[in-house]
Amino acid sequence: MNMEDGLCLTLGLPGRNEPDTESCYKNNNNNNNNKRSQPEYNDDSIESKGSSIAKESDMDTAPAPKSQVVGWPPVRNYRRINFQAKKVETESGIYVKVSMDGAPYLRKIDLKVYKGYPELLKALENMFKLTIGYKGSEYAPTYEDKDGDWMLVGDVPWEMFIVSCKRMRIMKGSEAKGLGCNV
Amino acid sequence: MDPNHKRSKTVDRVDSKTESTQFPDEVLERVLSLIKSNKDRSSASLVCKDWYNAERWSRRHVFIGNCYSVSPEIVAARFPKIRSVTIKGKPRFSDFNLVPDDWGADIFPWLNVFATAYPFLEELRLKRMAVSDESLEFLATKFVEFKKISMLSCDGFSTNGLKAIATHCKNLTELDIQENGIDDLGGHWLSCFPESLTSLEVLNFSSLNSEVCFKALEKLVSRSKSLRVLKVNRNISLDQLQILLSHAPQLMELGTGTFMQELVSGPVTGLKNAFSNCKKLLTLSGLWDATPLYLPVIYSACANLTFLNLSYATLRSDELANLLSHCKCLRRLWLLDTVGDKGLEAVGTSCPLLEELRVFPADPFDQEILLGVTESGFVSVSRGCPNLRYVLYFCRQMTNAAVATIAKNCPNFTHFRLCIMNPGQPDYLTKEPMDEAFGSIVKTCPNLQRLAVSGLLTDRTFEYIGKYAKNLETLSVAFAGSTDLGMECVLGGCPKLRKLEIRDCPFGNSAFLSGVGKYESMRSLWMSACNVTINACRTLAKERPRLNVEVMKDEGGCNDGQAHKVYVYRTVAGRRKDAPPFVLTL
User: Fold this and answer.
1) A61, A75, A113, best to mutate vs chain B, most B CBs in 10 Å
2) What pLDDT score was predicted for residue B262?
């Protein structure tokens, strides 16, 4: 893959070389779930309807607030379970800026589209036409968290990451060497 | 009186004065059969023996507000010709996990007696009952005329029970499954409806999670020409919904499935037309995952809507405002607090006829979140909706001044349920208790029947309630009050009180026992995590043998003499025989 192609100013989707103005407009409609405008990342992200609801409510591993009182607030179980399942599925996308050292402009990605770190890194590699990882790569993916600290991508569980990630930066060069990648 | 002989008196009585007013039994029965209200029927039955008899023979529906207040045998003996029964079981706080699962309220003993007493039973409506699959199968096979079943907040059954109903009830017109603790083993039950069943009027399976076979559903809907209520579950897509609507344009109540789809197979106008063809639609619910992308398809149906349930749709204020501008006739509206105060402003401006508003919290258990609605949203609604009667409002902050304004704007409240989600929270501006807020409600709203209080409250709140809330029937109290005086004021001051439920309040024995003369006039009292001792419970039980005083043991046992959970209710059936080991009837 040609590095220059990746850095050319286009209105295209990440990973595509031809500009596609129509999909750009779709991208702007961030009420729509993002899947429509990034078809190559769709397959793993679409969850089958029935089972996903059960899955999401099983996945309710959010730690209980410190002083949770039994039966308070008086919200019926049914409503609580139902909403938690829905919340994970329908919250509008988590868009974060991604900068790459040396690139003249930033990109934006929707973290909700990816199921985990491998997909995210693959997407970044496609977007910026580079390889991230341990094979003597010059690049390390980092992110700024809620506290303003710059962290290496991959240390925390995926669910925690997408909630705490404010922006990303793909570090290059001597700073990156030795950081490797934790995924 | 022998229940098998209708005519317990002859027509010719030796009493010239009253001769002209002696009706034959058949006439009296015919007249009384026109009385539908159970309250009026109860009054009629007290007039004299003849009226008592005529009433019991002509009654077709019985409502049992507490399944343990009476036994099925007593009901069957008094009312020989019942066709429809409504039964409520567990105390309301069981909805919030305060009652262990195997507490009781099993429907089976009732069905067992009904199988012989009412073999032609047609209708059963259950709330907070324990229902097993065996019970449902029994119901489906023993009652040949059975037509309608509705279950709300029940538990103990699975979709296998629904299979039995679908398979065996040849005359089914209503299957209404709402918010139950159901073991969802799959959607196959729906395919069990036979091809010959064409009488369905109500089908509600919105609370079930598994996918049903769409082909089976489509065929069922298309052959059910009298279908007026259809509420599907979230698995039904927009495409599928469109197909269903094309078969059932006569629907009056619709619960949609998911309102988000990647790509609808036809143009969006197809969906729009499907909705606009439903000219009789009055109620709309479901709308899971609704976004502005597809929400506009319902606009044409909105003009006639009287009830819109958006409590499963995470709408924002602007999305709600756009939608509501089409809903001028709305009387009842349920929302999630994601709409915010701005969304509630839109409610105030768009829905002048609104009578009922319920705002549920999208994230009740996350204490970090500071979103949701505040006092200002509630005030906006009250300004635009003077006909408000029923409000359920979950919020994280409130002020006394706001509630006073709300009461002034809406003096017609019959149901006022305010839940400030942080227990014991004061007026966030003045830091004072919220006493004056509820004071203004009870002073300004003479028709108040139901009240739920929250926030930091002293005895003053309860003094107000006892002094002013003369029509109050149901009161819910949590984390409130300072001394026994509070509860005593309520028990002493509210003549129409029927249900009192209290949790986590400092009321003790003196307050508890002050109601000794009152509890028989009430349906029930619940007190948990208060200061009542077991001895006080024993005292009450001894004083009033027609009350069941039940104490529920916590896991730690009753070592400290405290009664952690007390449930007191009047009964003519004596102590219950099915009490589990952790329930002590004193």
Assistant:
1) A75
2) 66
